[in-house]
Amino acid sequence: MKKILLTLLLFPLMASCQNNKKEAIKSKIYAVEKTDAEWKNELPRMAYQVLRHEATEPPFSGIYDKFYEEGVYICAACNTELYFSKDKYDSNSGWPSFDRGATENIEFDVDYKLGYARTELKCNTCGGHLGHMFNDGPRKTTGKRHCINSAALTFTPTADE
Ligand code: FE
After folding, report:
1. Number of structural domains, the chain?
2. Residues known to be catalytic
3. Which residues surround ligand 1, an ion (CB under 5 A)?
4. Secondary structure (H, E, C), 50-74
5. pTM for the whole thing?
6. What percent of the chain is helix, strand and coil (3-state, nearest 5)?
């Protein structure tokens, strides 16, 4: 009888642990976490759509597509340093392209939205969607192309000394 009682008591606990485990795998906890309503309220419309709902801005429409000033590109949502002007090149794809990023600040995820695996790039601090990585980058350097939505970034110029 005691055994049955113990099992009855433990079963919901075990089930709840398993649920928590599934939840942990499904969504990572980021250093910056906000509700969808909070993000929607504080981000410009396009930044919100790209960063929080994985939208893609139309090609050749973003402000940083043909933009080559010297400086740093930070996350438009949480200000984390993500890309540097020295790594930017013209891929003529219609989106800002970099041959590398600030690796420790970028999360490399997998996205199956088009029916096949693509490497999705996210801000590792807030989980915001940035774009995708492809293997058709400059062969002389990394061979990688970080194809990034302008709306996900904020450019900060290098200060003149
Ligand atoms: Fe961020």
Report:
1. 1
2. 147
3. 75, 77-78, 80, 123, 125-126, 128
4. HHHHCCCCCCCCCCCCCCCCCEEEE
5. 0.83
6. 30, 25, 45
**pLDDT > 50? residue 16:** no
In 3D, which of 91, 61, 93, 80 has the Cα closest to residue 130?
80
Query: How would DSSP label each residue in 101-116?
Result: --GGGEEEEEE-TTSS
Residue 94 included in any domain: yes
| Cα–ligand 1 centroid distance for 43 (angstroms) | 12
Residue 49 inside a domain? The answer is yes
Q: How far is the CA of 16 from the centre of ligand 1 (A)?
A: 31
* Residues 131, 51 contacting (CB under 8 angstroms): no
Over the stretch 129-157, which tens digit does the pLDDT of each residue have?
999 999 999 999 999 999 999 999 999 99
